[in-house]
Design brief:
It is built from 3 helices and no strands. The chain is mostly helical and 80 residues long. The mean pLDDT is 83.
Length: 80
């Protein structure tokens, strides 16, 4: 799919509209689509705030490191 003409065209269109850069976290860059996603998530969950992660890996990493940091003696095992 990464070389499919329709996918490449959609990627190019998004880059023209949003730009590209290394800023992937909210404190570095606030892209309009990320803001809109957070707003929709807040409305859906009836919450005051939300986090939108760039991937499942990043979400899991954040969740596990937060849990491990808040629970004394917690051990996280990861198997391949």
């Amino acid at each position: 799919m990464g070389q499919h003409p329709a996918v490449l065209a959609a990627m190019a269109e998004e880059l023209r509209g949003s730009g590209a850069g290394a800023g992937g976290t909210r404190n570095i860059s606030d892209q309009p689509r990320a803001c809109a996603a957070r707003t929709r998530a807040c409305r859906f969950a009836r919450a005051r705030g939300a986090l939108v992660f760039t991937s499942g890996f990043v979400a899991n990493e954040a969740a596990l490191s937060t849990l491990a940091g808040s629970m004394p003696g917690m051990v996280v095992l990861s198997m391949r």
